[in-house]
């Protein structure tokens, strides 16, 4: 099958492209770096010619509320329109566990809007909801840092390795559309403060973690289980300690 991976040069996308090729598909990375821009539409129609499946694992370069909403609304609208014209049989997108229950977060609102556009299209689709990637720990720490202190909630997280997320996305892309959502998560529930603290310590990062249940996570104050998957989630094997040992 020809499978176009939008965002195929990114963290998840490059792994998905490699896996889909291993499975015997023609996997084509599509992103501004390869001449395909889902925001402007440049190169989209051309890259979708003869394709069977579209996988969207792109991300907004800016996480500011308006930017991220504009990114996912515009890019998804363009991709869905082009995919419909190209007769794509399976549209796969990667989203975030719990994005539909955190409307205070601009990022989560944008991901929920992306999902609504996909569900409202006439395309057959699969949505993959992943928890936070281990690789994203540094970004979370930076976004929560003021005056050298990292203020974080102790709400539960079940972080996952990017390798494991990519395997789920690639497997689903190579299979029949679900017309529904699957959740995937790591094997352990940790406190957000505990997870990020462990990563910073492993990296000899001197920043102090301050536990504050009211500290917002990308704009949303977290409930204990806001970021946790439901009971039917596919649980990955890689533990935080395994991942840290490999860094
Ligand atoms: N981080 C987390 O913990 C987490 C958890 C669950 C779900 N997710 C979701 O996972 C997805 C992938 O995240 P990631 O960390 O792999 O992203 P990433 O490494 O930041 O990669 C972003 C990709 O998007 C591409 N892109 C940017 N602007 C584009 C445009 N206008 N048109 C087409 N492609 C464009 C980039 O292309 P260039 O290389 O050409 O710039 C790059 O390939 C996101 O949708 C995110 O919401 C993330």
Q: Can you list the strand order of the major beta sheet?
A: 2-1-3-4-5-9-14
Q: Helix and strand string, N-terminal first? A: EHEHEHEHEHEEEHEEHEEEEH
Count, helices: 8
Shape: globular
Low-confidence stretches: none
- Number of E-state strands: 14
Structural class: alpha/beta
Please state the CA-atom Rg, rounded to the nearest Å.
18 Å
Q: What portion of residues is helical?
A: 25-40%
Q: Write out the distinct hetero groups bound to the structure.
A: NADP nicotinamide-adenine-dinucleotide phosphate
Distance between the termini: 34 Å
Percent of residues in β-strands: 15-25%
Q: Can you summarize the main beta sheet?
A: 7 strands, parallel
Tell me, rounded to a whole number, the average pLDDT.
98
Structure description:
The chain is an alpha/beta fold and 247 residues long. Helices cover 36% and strands 21% of the residues. It contains eight helices and 14 strands. The protein has helices at residues 11-22, 44-48, 65-85, 106-119, 137-143, 162-173, 192-202, 240-246, and strands at 2-6, 26-30, 53-56, 90-96, 125-130, 145-146, 149-152, 156-157, 180-185, 190-191, 208-211, 216-217, 220-221, 234-235. The strands form four sheets. A seven-stranded parallel β-sheet has the order 2-1-3-4-5-9-14, with helices on both faces. Strands 6-7-11 form a three-stranded mixed β-sheet. The longest helix has 21 residues, at 65-85. It is globular, with a radius of gyration of 18 Å. Residues 6-7, 9-13, 31-33, 37-39, 57-59, 61, 75, 94-96, 111, 130, 132-133, 136 line the site of NADP nicotinamide-adenine-dinucleotide phosphate. NADP nicotinamide-adenine-dinucleotide phosphate is lined by residues 6-7, 9-13, 31-33, 37-39, 57-59, 61, 75, 94-96, 111, 130, 132-133, 136.
């Amino acid at each position: 099958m020809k499978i176009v991976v939008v965002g195929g040069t990114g963290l998840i996308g490059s792994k998905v492209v490699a896996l889909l090729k291993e499975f015997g598909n023609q996997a084509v990375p599509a992103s501004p770096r390869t001449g395909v821009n889902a925001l402007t539409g440049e190169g989209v129609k051309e890259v979708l010619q003869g394709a069977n499946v579209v996988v969207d694992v792109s991300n907004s370069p800016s996480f500011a509320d308006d930017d991220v909403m504009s990114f996912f609304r515009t890019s998804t609208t363009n991709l869905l329109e082009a995919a419909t014209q190209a007769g794509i049989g399976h549209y796969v997108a990667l989203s975030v566990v719990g994005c539909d229950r955190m409307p205070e977060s601009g990022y989560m609102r944008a991901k929920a809007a992306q999902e609504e556009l996909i569900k409202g299209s006439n395309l057959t689709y699969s949505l993959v909801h992943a928890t936070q990637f281990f690789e994203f720990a540094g970004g979370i720490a930076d976004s929560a840092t003021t005056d050298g202190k990292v203020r974080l909630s102790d709400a539960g997280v079940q972080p996952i390795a990017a390798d494991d997320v990519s395997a789920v996305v690639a497997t689903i892309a190579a299979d029949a559309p679900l017309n529904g959502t699957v959740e995937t998560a790591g094997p352990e529930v940790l406190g957000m403060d505990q997870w990020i603290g462990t990563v910073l310590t492993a990296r000899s990062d001197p920043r102090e973690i301050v536990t504050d249940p009211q500290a917002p996570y990308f704009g949303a104050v977290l409930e204990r289980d806001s970021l946790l998957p439901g009971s039917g989630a596919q649980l990955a094997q890689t533990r935080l300690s395994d991942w840290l040992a490999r860094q």
